What does this fold into?
Amino acid sequence: MRRIKSLNLEVHIADELLVKVGRPEIEFLKERVTRAERKRIRLCAHKDVADKLHEMFIGLSKETFIRPHKHLDKAESLHVIEGLADAVFFDDAGNITEVIELGDYASGRQFYYRVAEPTYHTLVLHSDFLIFHESTQGPFVRSQTMYAPWSPSEGDIDAIDIYRVRLGKAVDEFLAKSQ
It folds into this structure.
C-alpha cells in the first residue's frame, strides 16, 4: 500500500510526490467506505484544498445519499472505474433533464461525463460500490456548492428514503421515454 494520510474517516490524501493509484488503493476505498458514516470516501491526489486542480478517487456504497447539488463557477468531470450508477441532472425546479447510465468501460455504458455549467445533479447507484475519478477546479470553497432546495437534507433519513423511491421511479420513466 502506498503512503496515505487520513484526515478523517472520509478523506484521505495520497502522501507521495508522485501519486499512483492501482488495485490496492481501490480496495482500500471499498473496504473503508463501509466504515464512513455517510458511506462515502475519497482519496485525494491533490495535497491541499487550496490547490488549483482537485483530483479525487471516490468510493460510494449503495447506501450513500448524494444530495442533488450544483457547483458555481467550476466544471466537474467523473470517470467510472468500477460499478454501475445513473448520473441524474435536473433543472432548477427539480425536473429531470438528463440521465446518463454509467459504468466502467467493459460495461458498455457511458463511463465519463463532464459538466461545465451550474447544473443540479446526483448519482443513483445500481451496484454495491461505485468507484470513480473526479476532477474539478480548486480551491474548494464550500459556499460554491448549492444544494437543491427541493431535495431532503442528508440527516433526514425518512425523507431520504421517500425521495430515493420517488427519484428511482422518475429516472425509470425518463429513461423509458428516452428510448
